[in-house]
Design goal:
Layout (H helix, E strand, L loop, with lengths): L15 H11 L12 H8 L3 H15 L3 H35 L3 E6 L2 E6 L8 E5 L7 E13 L1 H4 L5 E2 L5 E2 L4 E13 L22 H30 L4 H15 L4 H18 L2 E3 L2 H7 L4 E4 L11 E7 L2 E5 L10 E3 L2 E3 L5 H12 L4 E5 L2 E5 L2 H12 L10 E5 L7 E6 L5 E7 L1 H5 L2 E6 L2 E4 L2 H16 L3 E10 L9 E10 L6 H10 L3 E4 L5 H10 L6 E4 H6 L2 H9 L2 E4 L3 H13 L4 E5 L5 H6 L2 E5 L5 H6 L2 E3 L4 H41 L8 H20 L25 H22 L4 H19 L10 H4 L5 H19 L1 H7 L6 H27 L1
Parallel strand pairs: 9-23, 9-26, 19-22, 24-25, 26-27, 27-28
Antiparallel strand pairs: 1-2, 1-3, 3-7, 4-5, 4-6, 4-7, 8-28, 10-11, 10-22, 11-12, 12-13, 14-15, 16-17, 17-18, 18-21, 19-20, 21-22
Helix pairs in contact: 2-4, 3-4, 3-7, 4-8, 4-22, 6-7, 6-8, 7-21, 7-22, 8-21, 8-22, 9-21, 10-11, 13-15, 14-21, 17-18, 21-22, 21-23, 22-24, 22-26, 23-24, 23-28, 24-26, 24-28, 26-27
Bound molecules: adenosine-5'-triphosphate.
The site of adenosine-5'-triphosphate has 20 residues, from helix 11, strand 17, strand 18 and strand 21.
Length: 856
């Protein structure tokens, strides 16, 4: 097997000039953009709905009967509705497009002799590409060197068993690296790649209908059927009363239009998309809109520790050996500190054991530390970087980059890494990893007097030291080595050199976020690959309840019942491998929990898929993990998950608010129309007026209601059960209450003014209904908190929508063109006074009621 290290000659990669020349010749590493959703398609969606077809039908009948004004009015409403729907959907579409752009994949290349991460789009043929486990291969590339490279080519071949590829063969764009790593030279990019699979590389945001959208769709359909039946009935009543055909059609149509909350689907789409945008601003990228919804119901967050709860900025603090201990000074990856023992500085040059430790630190690694001007730049796994920094502090000699012969890579399952390096007089096996696992392969231990057999008693002593270091919250890495004359690597008979203890401070804000989650009834469960004692120490420092720490091995030994009992308590999991995560999720889900699970590696993908909310790390995470996730954390921060949950809860609550609001508005119209028809009075609202209310004034107000900021209590309530209905039966009295009042009040105005003329009465009733609906919206801002507690200016968008829609209604009443379309006539101060007087209770009564209920 070849090495994954750079081969000489190729090491520098392309220069900036060569990249520019190749770019000019070959273009970008991208397929022609898949046609973005066109404006035309979005528009087409607006004009093909059942309602619109019904309207067009009615318009044609009106035209045939010579009622040009009616036909024109219906036409105008169709156009306005389409314009509004288009504007909203287009906005949603743009928001999703922006999200997609943020998910563009990256590639690691060597250019100008420097390893760097660039957008995969910028690759050119000739680029020196580094592939690592979890990467999506960004272009077709010839493998130059590899170590344990395994590729999943199922996107190309359908064959799901990973294949190995020796140097000389091609890694195809679009396939994924499931193991090992490689250095490769890009041969073909963009459309020129095999099968043009690069299209798969553009981050995708999938957007099947969410549960919410489906539930609302169902509601709309049910209402639609009821509406048709009622409309037919009302029309029949009208016909029996001897109305003209057009009037019968109009009556039926009014009824149908009044009953169905036409604005609802658009409002939900816009709210979800805006919600996804709001989450992205909080560093949480939503890959499925469904996640916005599910997040609000999350009851358990399973999170890894390193980098999510902690900074993943490791520094070696202590090194234990059987010959004595060392401490290291300095912070971060600036190697300006030093190594000391008993207060005296030590250098590798005059301390053979320290030199051997440094040999492993520098030789058994993929990390790199380089100086960029004043700053030190580190690339690679922070654990490895910390060890390299330690070696620099000990003034250790740099290893020969060409000495590497073979490697057994680190995986979360093996929890160790070994390399074979060429040397004189003998080759060397260098190993580092989790102490328990490295110890299993050691037969000797280095002491001041040379290597001696590792007796069970000595091994026990080493384990005790490892535990003691871990209890201080340190990550512990065992370092071991062996001389060999073979040229194949074998992790046996190693000599344990010592243990390094690395600190990794908790991230700022995480302790607060854990407390906030706890207050919201959301449990946080740490699942880490680290030592149980480290896990517990870090949990304690973060205020995370973890009375018991269960290891992966213990999980494996438990049956489902025992695991189920374990996950119910304050528990953390340590030394876990990705496979264990699946069982832990299943156990939690079986208890009815809604589980969010974080992950970053290839092997985490099944757990990410299985979890109710799969959460991938944006920085540390592999492309494979991101693909499997519902949510990607741009900052890898635990606190971001809690922020996203708060956002999810807000969305769900707001959706409930505007669904109730829209239905209450419709109920008012239906009550007015039904009672009106039963009373045999002239038609109280014309279909166009109802459309105006439902599609234009209500829709805009509802979107604004969807922007309502979170109520204080939202993160103090327990998570809602998954089955919580958006519209529980208990909300019916509220909807009917508002409907009865607004319906009967506008009917009363209509009846009262009827003697002064049908047009005046109808205009006043129509205007009254619009004003009532606008006034009621404030009651729906919260179902329990009065406005004075929420802050009257808390939702500026709602105030703007309120004012704008009232102004629009004034225009509808006094502006000639709209007067023609909506068949309105000017109304006077007396009518306005009547309307205002009847609207007042809608503002006052709900406030009083909520205030009184709070008092109780
Ligand atoms: P978490 O799941 O909290 O993020 P983790 O993912 O860092 O933890 P792993 O990466 O699986 O956990 O590491 C498990 C153990 O493997 C560590 O405790 C450490 O002892 C060892 N280890 C980690 N990184 C390396 C490495 N690069 N080389 C060798 N051993 C390592």
């Amino acid at each position: 097997m070849q090495t994954g290290r750079r081969t000489r000659g190729a090491a520098a990669g392309l220069t900036a000039a060569e990249v520019a020349a190749a770019r000019a010749a070959h273009g970008w590493n991208a397929l022609p953009e898949p046609p973005a959703v066109s404006a035309l398609a979005v528009l087409a969606r607006q004009v093909t709905g059942l309602l619109v077809l019904m309207l067009v039908g009615a318009g044609l009948i009106a035209l045939a009967l010579g009622e040009h004004i009616d036909a024109l009015a219906i036409g105008a409403v169709v156009v306005l509705n389409a314009a509004l729907g288009f504007a909203q959907e287009w906005k949603a579409e743009r928001a999703m497009l922006a999200l997609r752009a943020m998910m563009a994949p990256q590639a690691t290349v060597i250019r100008d002799g420097r390893e760097q991460a660039i957008p995969a789009r910028e690759l050119v043929p000739g680029d020196l590409l580094l592939l690592a486990e979890g990467d999506r291969v960004p272009a077709d590339a010839e493998i130059l060197a590899e170590a344990g490279l395994r590729l999943d080519e199922s996107v190309l071949t359908g064959e799901s068993v990973p294949v190995s590829k020796p140097p000389g063969e091609t890694a195809f764009g679009g396939t994924t690296v499931t193991g090992g790593h490689a250095e490769a030279r890009v041969t073909r990019i963009g459309a020129a790649t095999e099968f043009g699979q690069v299209a798969e590389l553009t981050g995708r945001v999938e957007r099947g209908p969410t549960t919410l959208q489906r539930a609302l769709g169902q509601l709309a359909r049910q209402l639609g059927w009821i509406a048709l039946a009622v409309a037919g009935l009302v029309a029949a009543m009208g016909a029996w009363r001897g109305l003209e055909t057009l009037q019968v059609v109009m009556l039926g149509l009014s009824m149908a239009v009044a009953m169905v909350p036409e604005g609802l689907p658009a409002v939900v789409t816009v709210t979800l998309a805006l919600g996804a945008g709001a989450m992205a601003r909080r560093n949480a990228l939503v890959r499925h809109l469904q996640a916005v919804e599910t997040l609000g119901a999350a009851s358990v967050i399973c999170t890894d520790k390193t980098g999510t709860l902690t900074e993943n900025a490791m520094t070696v603090r202590q090194v234990w050996t059987a010959a004595g201990s060392y401490t290291a000074t300095g912070r971060g990856h600036d190697p300006t500190g030093h190594v000391e023992t008993g207060g005296a500085k030590r250098r590798a040059g005059d301390d053979p054991l320290l030199a051997q430790l440094c040999e492993v630190a520098l030789g058994c690694t993929h990390a790199r530390l380089s100086r960029a001007g004043e700053r030190w730049e580190a690339l690679g796994d922070p654990t490895e970087v910390a060890l390299i920094v330690l070696a620099h502090k000990a003034w250790a000699a740099a290893p020969d980059p060409d000495a590497l012969m073979e490697e057994l890579p680190f995986t979360s399952e093996r929890k160790r890494m070994s390399v074979l390096v060429r040397g004189t007089p003998a080759n060397r096996v260098l190993t580092k990893g989790a102490p328990e696992l490295v110890l299993e392969h050691c037969s000797r231990i280095a002491t001041a007097g040379g290597a001696v057999p590792l007796t069970p008693a000595r091994a026990e002593e080493v384990r005790a030291v490892a535990t003691a270091l871990a209890e201080e919250g340190l990550r512990v890495i065992a370092l071991a080595a062996r001389d060999t004359d073979e040229d194949r690597i074998a992790e046996t008979d190693l000599t344990l050199l010592g243990l390094a203890g690395l600190i990794d401070p908790p991230r700022a804000g995480v302790a607060e976020a854990i407390a906030a989650a706890q207050a919201a009834g959301i449990r946080t469960v740490m699942i880490t690959g680290d030592h149980p004692a480290t896990a517990q120490a870090i949990a304690r420092s973060l205020g995370l309840p973890a009375e018991t720490v269960v290891t992966g091995a213990e999980v494996a030994a438990m049956d489902d019942a025992a695991l189920s009992a374990t996950v119910a308590g304050p528990v953390a999991f340590a030394r876990v491998s990705p496979g264990d995560k699946l069982r832990i999720i299943a156990a939690l889900q079986a208890r009815g929990e809604t589980v969010g699970m974080t992950g970053d590696g290839v092997n985490d993908a099944p757990a990410l898929r299985r979890a109710d909310i799969g959460i991938a790390m944006g920085i540390r995470g592999t492309e494979v993990a991101k693909d499997a996730a519902d949510l990607v954390l741009l900052d890898d921060n635990y606190a971001t998950i809690v922020g996203a949950i708060a956002e999810g809860r807000r969305q769900f609550d707001n959706t409930r608010k505007f669904v109730r609001y829209l239905l209450a508005s419709n109920a008012g119209e239906v009550v007015a129309l039904l009672v009106n028809t039963a009373m045999r009075a002239p038609l109280i609202f014309l279909p166009t007026q109802i459309l105006w209310m439902n599609l234009i004034t209500d829709g805009v107000t509802a979107v604004a209601l969807g922007l309502e900021p979170p109520e204080g209590a939202q993160m103090r309530d327990p998570p809602r059960p998954r089955a919580t209905r958006i519209l529980p039966l208990s909300s019916l009295p509220l909807i009917l209450g508002f409907g009865l009042y607004t319906g009967l009040a506008s009917l009363w105005i209509f009846e009262r003014l009827l003697p002064q003329g049908e047009d005046l009465a109808r205009t006043a009733a129509f205007t009254a209904m619009v004003v009532f609906e606008k006034a009621s919206v404030f009651a729906f801002r919260s179902l329990r908190t009065p406005g004075w507690r929420l802050g009257y200016l808390g939702n500026p968008a709602l105030l703007v929508a309120f004012a704008a829609m009232l102004a629009l209604q004034v225009v509808a009443v006094y502006w000639a063109p709209l007067q023609v379309l909506l068949q309105t006539v000017p109304i006077g101060w007396a009518e306005w006074g009547l309307i205002a007087g009847l609207a007042l209770p809608l503002l006052v009564v709900p406030e009083l009621w909520k205030t009184l209920r709070r008092g109780r």
